[in-house]
Amino acid sequence: MHIRVRSGGHDYEGLSYVSVLPFVIIDLINLQSVTVDATNNTAWVEAGATNGKLYYSIAQKSRTLGFPAGVCPTVGLGGHISGGGYGLLLRKYGLAADNVIDAQLIDVNGRILDRASMGEDLFWAIRGGGGNTFGIVVAWKVTWFQFRPATVTVFTVEKTLEQNATQLVNRWQYVADKLHEDLFIRVILERTSSTDARELSRTGLAKDDCTEMSWIESTLYFAGFSRNTSLEILLNRTQPSVRFFKAKSDYVKEPMPEVALEGIWESLFQLEVGSGQLIFSPYGGRMSEISESSIPFPHRAGNLYKIQHLAYWDEEGIEESNRHISWIRRLYSFLAPYVSKNPRLAYINYRDLDIGINNQGNTSYKQASIWGIKYFKITLTGWSMSRPKLILLISSETNKASHLSQLDHHDEEGSYKVEQPNKDVRVLYWTSMCRLIIAMRFFEM
């Protein structure tokens, strides 16, 4: 019998609510209270609450307060925090898990443990290494932050490849992780139609593009809502639109050459139905200051940026799914020479069964290490050197993530040849600061 634990239901491979074996779901949806302590700058957040619920609850106390969680308001905080969830404040305050100071966990014996009673080893293990391996976390105690000044500025600028987007993104790779920690710049690459691109008349940033707002209003902006949308929308647990998708992740330690960027443009153009997208999120700042062993999330200093690969489609059926998944696998293979190696690293909250799965039933340490080293950078043995009490728990719990993929395994080291890029590609270039939150979009035709 398998146990699946669901907080918000956003697991990228559905592992929080599916299994090939008989299973039960522990659904935390009714555990969603948020208790804010404005005096001590803390909040107790139940694991079934969402990012949006936390943001809304903090805003009820003050619109100058914020917390470094993700841009998607419907994501459940149980999985978001336990898997190393992040947002636009990544370079300023680190991950959501970096700002957890206590927790409540139900262990296998039914005991409710807090940080003091569970001990520092277990408290270390539950923050950033993937959800509910050592028990069921039912609540987190987090610290939040005061924004001064209280006003931020957001803007969006759209451009085209003919305005040197390739060179722009190439230059971005050299500076994004080295800028002041108040500045967060992320790049989004995706294809657009020639008609959309031709309609773009401006090429620069004007004062009229800029809008001042509070930080809580900026969470609506980056979630895709208009500024006049009521904050109550943050309490909605249902996404406005849902599509089929497959995701992958990478970490980049050295700037890619321009030929790699040109290969991405060509790959995006090849996706005939649906859409593809790559999101580059910069590191540096606070992320480079925190030790990679401070919590189980090891991706810290030495990373320029993280890539999220995405393929979206709307039609049901195995044939349609396989076509888009094959596309993202080819792109993933093409990028192999330009991303982290030995191992090729991945982000646990963008779970990807292609990089390794456990055997059904009993599995082995060797089998689990295939994917474990990619998510956690070091072997489980490496963990045991500094956390000796945890290795037995890890070894006995690895089979809980087993899941049968209906898709063939793909060799990440395969090759993918590209031709000259077509220009129907757009580059979304997002910038944000604690004081200045910017979204700049660059289109290319």
From TrEMBL:
Q: Which cofactor does it need?
A: FAD
Source superkingdom = Eukaryota
- Care to name a GO molecular-function term for this sequence? FAD binding
Pfam families xrefs: FAD_binding_4
FAD-binding PCMH-type domain location is 1-147
Q: Which SUPFAM superfamilies match?
A: FAD-binding/transporter-associated domain-like (SSF56176)
Q: Which PANTHER family match?
A: OS08G0158400 PROTEIN
Protein name as catalogued = FAD-binding PCMH-type domain-containing protein
In its UniProt entry, the species of origin is given as Hevea brasiliensis (Para rubber tree)
Instruction: Kindly list the organism's lineage.
Output: Eukaryota, Viridiplantae, Streptophyta, Embryophyta, Tracheophyta
